[in-house]
Specification:
It is a single chain. With about 260 residues, this protein is mainly α. Helix content is about 75%, strand content about 0%. It has ten helices and no strands. α1 crosses α9 and α6 packs antiparallel against α7. About 5% of the residues have low confidence.
Length: about 260
């Protein structure tokens, strides 16, 4: 494959296939198939290792975020974004601090455990039915926003793995399908672009070489964007919720690998 000779990093054919697949998943995640982006994380880690992989993935996420926001720009629920962002920034700070002490495997297990706990709570809440009284009290309203905001900021900074966290939170507030996707699109556009200077200056894992590789992967991200749009249009509201639960669970299990 002569094409490989022109790619950075001297990739092998199987590595290129894995990264193309991961790039498609990133595109799909930005236009409705939330949770599937976490499947891309172990594929990139397999090739680039832990922290360096985050610097390779981040520009691809930023590229896909633009298409997601353009397509779903009218459907965002800004009140949830505004509530989450300050806590997400606190999560950034926690990740930068914890990076000095906790190994990458420990981060993945911590994040995965929190998401699985959140999924259990959401499943219980759905089993109660739509007619049940909504949870009240600081811990279950403002407290949950703080918890998911910090966890989302922490997990996205450590491994670009906040998709499942935000899926659980947005499911908990019972947003319609279009609002779910639009709110997630704007939230991740903001946090991912805020992460770029931190990744570059603090972790030094974005370089000319990594950006050149990202340019090669951009068409596959775009293909995933289109595929995600087509799939979301064909899925009913109830099926959409089930799909998000399933993909979140599967992608969370991959964090333990």
């Amino acid at each position: 494959m002569a094409f490989l000779a022109h790619l950075p990093y001297g990739l092998l054919p199987w590595q290129l296939v894995a990264l193309m697949s991961g790039s498609i998943c990133i595109g799909m995640s930005k236009t409705g198939i939330n949770g599937i982006s976490t499947i891309a994380i172990p594929l990139f880690v397999l090739v680039f290792e832990g922290k360096p992989s985050t610097g390779v993935i981040l520009p691809l996420l930023c590229f896909a975020d633009l298409f997601a926001v353009i397509y779903y720009r009218r459907h965002a629920e800004w009140k949830y974004i505004v509530r989450l962002l300050p806590w997400a920034l606190a999560g950034f700070a926690a990740a930068l601090f914890a990076d000095r002490f906790v190994p990458a495997k420990g981060f993945k297990m911590l994040i995965g455990g929190c998401i699985l706990a959140g999924l259990g709570i959401m499943f219980w809440n759905d089993r109660r039915g739509k007619g049940a009284a909504a949870p009240t009290g600081w811990l279950r309203t403002k407290g949950s926003t703080a918890l998911f905001g910090i966890l989302g900021g922490f997990s996205t900074m450590i491994g670009n793995a906040a998709g499942p966290v935000m899926s659980v939170f947005l499911l908990s507030v019972r947003l319609p399908k279009a609002s779910f996707v639009g709110t997630a699109a704007w939230f991740f556009l903001i946090v991912n672009y805020l992460k770029v200077p931190l990744q570059y200056f603090a972790w030094h894992n974005i370089s000319v070489e990594s950006l050149l590789f990202d340019a090669y992967m951009a068409p596959f991200v775009l293909g995933g964007v289109v595929l995600g749009i087509l799939l979301v249009k064909k899925i009913s509201e109830s099926a959409f919720r089930v799909m998000i639960y399933a993909l979140t669970l599967v992608s969370t299990v991959l964090l333990f690998v």
